[in-house]
Write a structure and sequence with these properties.
DUF695 domain-containing protein; DUF695; alpha+beta; 3 domains
Length: about 350
Amino acid sequence: MAIRAARPRQLSRSLDFSGVRIETARLRSDRAITTFWRWWSADGRRRATAAIDSGDTGRVVPEISSLIEAIDPGLSWEFVPGCEDVPHRLTVTAAGVPELRGAARRWLAAAPRADETWSFADLREPVRGCAMYFRDHRLGFDDAEVVVDLGLSRADVTVHHPAFTALTGADSSIAAYLLLDALCGEEQVETWVGLIRANATAPGVDAVPLADLPQILRELAADNTDELGEPAWQILHGDTDRGPLVAVVRVPLVALSAPEFDRHVAVHVPYTDVEDGGLPGSRSLPGLRDLEDHLVERLEGNGECVGAESCDGRRLLHFYVDSTTPAHEQLRVAASGWDQGEVTVTVTDDPGWRKVQHLRV
């Protein structure tokens, strides 16, 4: 099968209880976020400041760790120097796990305003310095090189570092990810980097210094931004066992672009004017466009359409919506008036945006 855009997945209807489980976990997480900020306002801020100023951060690490783990055990946190006007920053991050991006963003949204001592973030900023330490090994930034495989909207990166030879198991992969975060910042890595590989052997002639990667990612971001500074749209073409496929997708297709939209709604729309290759003809296209516009309007900001696939007489619209709202039911009702066949709607809790990763190329 020759493919330039991955073939559409067969999606199954999710059980209603899965949504109940996700919503219960989210409510528990939100209560833990409230508890954290109540503790911070009551005594945590004072204690954290005193611990840092005295050089004994271990005095507050266990308590903060416990409070953050209550939000989600997979979250990571750290104290880092802030800017000149605000000396300290507390960062709580998803640490590269897309499914945790929403929890980290909700923690930040509930944070107090930055003051003269503290600011808050849910993404690691690029670090200043020439090296990082991992498992007691020094990883010099100047010793690292990368091989970058550029796609339309993502870069797969192989990281080469001689110190990887001293690491075992998955540690070299973790170190490679941390090196990219350190040089590029977490936002750039999560948004534009796809696969990350670690390699301790000498790189080939196509390797570049790790220090060049931030500029490569900035150029990739610019290529995927329109003249108004908004996310661009890509047209993808592929061949499947059901015939030609054409997809139109918004980039970047990553959870970080809208972490509050954690539920995937697949709207399957049949059309009657089918060209020889299975794509919509001129008599169906206007109606399909009007339907998509109508569905987006009904969301009222509680979700967005991030892509559409057309193949074999059907169009699959990919929506991501806020699971705490009735947005998925609004889409179901709004699509029921389609006059070219029966529309089916599949709802899946998907905070990591896994359902559209086959379209991230």
